[in-house]
Specification:
The protein is of the alpha+beta class. Helices cover 15% and strands 34% of the residues. It has three helices and 13 strands. A hairpin with a 2-residue loop joins β3 (45-48) and β4. Mean pLDDT is 90; it is low at 211-217.
Length: 217
């Protein structure tokens, strides 16, 4: 884990994360540069993407924390932002694969409804419905194959997917009424709100519909 330090408005701001997430750390610094300085108090919290980020003042240094997604994020915080920033990166990267600048927000504390035990099945689909209540991501996860179907349901918090099936995290910022088909950890297809195929991905994560190129312009 690397310690990143930046002076923002005469305040020493510290972020800790794996070195590979340097660009995400810099983006986080830029967001904090836009926050009014009077808000920079111990315990100040802001939601950015799927995660909250919290200010903790120690020895006149302003540490940026996140909920501890490896434990209980409702009660515990961590100085290691690796998981928070990694999930953010995965979601942004996936939107770019589809040439989408913006998706639909999701929070780590939102619920995902799942057909019971379906996260153990290889072939699954995720579908996001609009009009969900606050705290509900709108996502439902079910089986592709009828023989795996069940009427029993269970629910997980978004952050719990990091432990159970982390590959699903990348698609959760897609807009309402989108559907994604997975084969184990590989996205096979994405359908938009009109049930039109938005992308078909091969084993190298290339969009076959665009001739194997993921144009992000």
């Amino acid at each position: 884990m690397k310690k990143f330090v930046k002076n923002i408005g005469h305040k020493v701001v510290v972020v800790q994360a794996e070195h590979e997430l340097k660009m995400q750390v810099e983006s986080l610094f830029r967001i904090f540069e836009t926050i009014e300085r009077e808000k920079w108090t111990d315990g100040f919290s802001i939601q950015i993407g799927w995660s909250n980020f919290i200010v903790s003042v120690k020895n006149e240094e302003y540490y940026i924390l996140s909920p501890d997604y490896s434990g209980n994020p409702f009660e515990d915080y961590t100085e290691d932002l690796t998981l928070a920033l990694w999930a953010q990166l995965e979601q942004v990267h996936f939107l770019r694969k589809l040439n989408m600048k913006n998706g639909e927000g999701v929070s780590f504390r939102d619920k995902v409804v799942v057909a019971k035990n379906i996260l153990e099945v290889d072939s699954i689909y995720l579908q996001r419905s609009g009009g969900a209540e606050r705290g509900d991501s709108g996502w439902y996860i079910g089986p592709v194959n009828e023989e795996d179907d069940t009427e029993e349901l269970e629910a997980f918090y978004v952050y719990q997917l990091l432990k159970i099936r982390p590959s699903l995290i990348q698609v959760l910022a897609l807009p309402y009424e989108y559907m994604v088909i997975f084969e184990r950890d590989q996205v096979k297809a994405v359908l938009n709100e009109r049930d039109q195929v938005k992308a078909v991905l091969n084993e190298r994560d290339e969009d076959i519909l665009s001739g194997g190129r993921n144009d992000t312009n």
